[in-house]
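hey all, quick one before standup. I had two proteins in the batch that finished overnight and I want to keep them in one place so we stop losing track of which output belongs to which input. First protein below, input sequence then structure tokens straight from the run.
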Amino acid sequence: MPGQLAAPKTLCILRLSAIGDVCHAVAMVQQIQRQYPGVSITWVIGKVEAMLLEGLPGVEFVVFDKSAGIRGYRDLRQAFKGRHFDILLHMQVALRASIASLCIPAKVKIGFDRQRAKEGQWLFTNERVEPIKHPHVLDGFLGFAKAIGVEITRPHWEMPITDQDQLWASEKLTTSQPLAVISPAASKAERNWHVEGYSKIAEHLSELGFQVVLCGGPTTLEKLLAEDIISRSECSLINLVGQTSLKQLLSVLKLAHLVIAPDTGPAHMAVTVGTPVIGLYAHSNPHRTGPYNYQHYVVSCYQQAVQNQYGKSLSKLPWGIRAKGNQLMNGIAVSQVKDKIRQLIADHYPEITPID
């Protein structure tokens, strides 16, 4: 655990992936910038994630291409030749990230506390953040800011959205109706809710007066899932799956009145632009990875699933333990999601009249 560290003049952050995690890291970076406005920040980041955060004020990005193998490490070492940082915040436990940290010259290298420093990360650092018993990922990241003397406040974000991207989204979604975005696909198919559930919720939202928009990436799985939802839904849907850049997607999420998604990047992107999220969870603990600021709208069957699999109460299991199985998301009922929609509307849009 670090002692009294001087405010850094030069700071390097190592967090390569994934989309949701770099969204959490932005909140930490901007807390540091508010307290230390003169600090020079360099962020070593993944290629896809850099596309989302390009233009983030006051941050220099150095892209690490993990698919490049040894060349990626050589490029990283070359990028930092002749440079030196006061502090490195090593915020990723994957071994490849720890190897990358060897290419970053810094006197102080802060990693996770011993319990969270998986894959031998503690071997690559000389200081650690304070341990936290049951943190959300974002709160865990804020521990790095706290380690360098930042007084932690409630997270908020200033995301780099261009006028061009906002104009694109506005032109794609020319409607007087409120917008509801469904981002149905996670990176792993087992985390996706079923097509029938998505289609019934799309119809419900349409009946409430929303224009429903489907969003997602360009993979075949995501496109086919969107097509299945559309074919099952007896309402008009706008399909933007595979048709947006990450910044355009962020602009769409900003325009939306609400977002429904499983454990996936767009859910956390929506949080950064202040759009309420209904998260659908079965495999991971939503108290650890759920949409920050909107965890009270999560629909989860995680606790029951993990207790059934391990034969212990959740309080006696390791924090963040995952449940396994391809059918777990079937434990989420359509009625539960409708209840959360009703709650969200009452909290944020009381002018919209719920239906029975």
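OK second protein, same deal, sequence then tokens:
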Amino acid sequence: MTPLSRRGFAAAGLATLLTGCGGRTDRPAATAARGSKGDGAAASTGTGAAPRPLARSVPVRLLIPAIGVDTPLLRLGLAADRTVQVPPVTAHDRAGWYRHSPTPGQVGPSVILGHVTVGAYGDGVFRHLARLRRGETITARLENGARAEFAVTRVRTVAKADFPADEVYGDVNRPELRLITCGGPHTGAGYSDNVIVFAALSGTAP
């Protein structure tokens, strides 16, 4: 893995990641990967040159204009059972950044999780995540005042049993973003699928 992402996963002591994403009790499992899979699409600034990676700075806000998302970001770690924490189910739903992943704009896959529904409170912050399309913009605002802008490269809906851990958590050689929530049919046991948005850094601002 890249040095930053290697340190992050090592600090977490991870053998298994759970990508929780909303609803009531569902928390889909995925094995942490150490592969080298990316999404294969090059980020562009419009000048033909890839934007330079940013220094590490904790993300504080996420904006996705195409689906009306403007959310503060929680910091998520590991639960007592060594699974990835998910944002709490509250009336004022917020997404959360997994703090053992790179920060947005650093080389590697930065991982942000959000709910699709929040129980009796209704819709979650990532309720329309599956509507995103290639090229649409995602902006992460960082604690140091910088902005990392990403362009969606693809959106996947997969069965939780087939969660593509290599693609989500595996090594990449540029700054990328992963947004994860639940999707598919909902039963008493929860949602059957995960929706995963892959995006690559397309621009930065101080």
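Flagging for whoever picks this up: The beta strands are 16-18, 29-31, 59-64, 69-76, 95-98, 108-113, 137-142, 147-159, 175-187, 190-205. Residues 1-38, 40-46 have pLDDT under 50 and may be disordered.
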